[in-house]
Amino acid sequence: MLTVLALLLVGVGLGQLRGLPDGAGPVLDAVVIRVSLPALVLAVVAELELDASLLVPVAAAWGSLVVLAGAVWILARVARLDRRTTATLLVVVPLSNSSFLGFPAVEALLGADHLPAAVVYDQLGMFLAIATYAAIVAARMGEGPTPSLAGTVQRVLSFPPFVALLVAVAANLAGGLPGPVADIADVVGATVVPLAMLAVGLRLRFTGDGWRPGLLASALTLRMVVAPGLVAAAAVTVGGVGTVVWDTSVLETAMPPMVTAAVVAADAGLDEQLASRLVGVGVVVAMVTLPLWAWWLG
Fold it and tell me: Taking the domain 2-297, which CATH number applies?
């Protein structure tokens, strides 16, 4: 958890001190979206092992996404947000930081035995969502003219993480990636966290106008309080509190917005400042809220 925060602060420092050339942010975005993230998808999904009990984290991931997307849409209507802001919130808020922050947080707060469920939540929930849901929203509401249905499908099918997902599923069914390919995917995929956090940090400014604290607070409350609260309520209803799959699902849903979602938003020409602030502030707030959720889970 502290590593993720440290990387974010390094990015902020580089941005404030002009430690990287102008235009470095978009270059990092492109590397993450087109190289690092596809490699990570290949490395993890190709080796994923499934069983029936892991349907719980999958259902929690997609259920929370649907609820949050609907809540963001209502918030946008009530607050009369513009299309660009609405699209940014729709891309960033429903997707949780279930791997970069989620895996170390789950291991530290719940135990290593919860990691398989966390991987399933991330890979069959958030990773699928970033490759499908986020790609569709970015294609339909991103910079430039709204594409036709055929154009949207074409953008999604050519979205590098989605292409990697299809290849990874085929490799999984065939027994996994060849050894050398798996090794390369592991090494390249490991660059996602540092590059993505630097890309977000470069854009994050703690000073200046346009913070919109009410909007940030509302969005992060939906992401880090309301969504996990609904999953926790479901766990209580079915008597799942104290079980690995339910406790993991609650804590993963309580994560702040996904770093890569902010990169996708910036790459699509959406509000990169808002996206970066949601991620950056969310990481800081999570240092308090995640231990509280873990304490509640007992």
Answer: 1.20.1530.20
Give the list of residues 6+ apart from residue 127 with CB closer than 8 angstroms, or none: 41, 44, 45, 99, 161, 165
Q: Return the structure tokens found at 44.
A: 């993890």
pLDDT over 70 percentage in the chain: 95
| Token output for 163 | 């292409």
CA distance 149 to 293: 41
Residue-wise pLDDT tens digits, 206-216? 666 677 899 99
CB 253 within 8 A of CB 102: no
pTM for the model stands at 0.79
Closest by CA position to 39, among listed 160, 128, 130? 160
* 161-211 confidence digits (pLDDT tens): 788 878 988 998 898 899 999 999 999 988 887 887 787 778 776 666 677
Residue 132 three-state SS: coil
Distance CA 72, CA 84 (A): 13
Extract the tokens encoding 183. Answer: 């090794």
Report how far residue 227's alpha carbon sits from residue 231's, in angstroms, rounded to the nearest whole number.
7
Residue with tokens 């990092």: 28
3-class DSSP assignment, residue 261: helix
